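Notebook entry, structure prediction.
Reason for the run: the old model in the group folder had no record of what sequence produced it. Starting over properly, with the input documented here first.
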Amino acid sequence: MLAALEGHESLHDLTIIIQSDLLIGNLMMNEEKNNPSWPSFIIDLDQAIRENRENPSGAPSKTGTRAFIAIGAFYSEDHTFMYDLESFFWVLIWICIHYTGPEQAQETTDFEFWNYKNTTKLAKIKQGMVVHKGDFIKEISQNFIPYY
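New structure, fully documented this time:
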């Protein structure tokens, strides 16, 4: 995950592009020990946008997998680099809840509805999960897989 974050930072610093559609399937990990390419990288830049653009990108304001979308994006705020970082956070949460180890996904969890919930309601659910440190710690303690 750290290498993916570094790649994201590099993409932004070199091109001033924000990926804007981060999800598990767009984060690739190179697991071949003898392959000298990047240890991880981001794919699927079709929703990427240039930061500080003068005109709207033309893309819908709420694209992507709902579970990984930044809270502010649910309120149609302009997408920022920080929203991509928040998406990394939600991806990490999802992994720690849904995967019992490397490449070992659980069948279902109580968080599956995140992909189907009304966006305004999901934004409030996510806010409620992270606003108070004690509530957040309780939530992850109850739901994170022991592997993590």
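Summary: The radius of gyration is 16 Å.
The old model has been moved to the deprecated folder.
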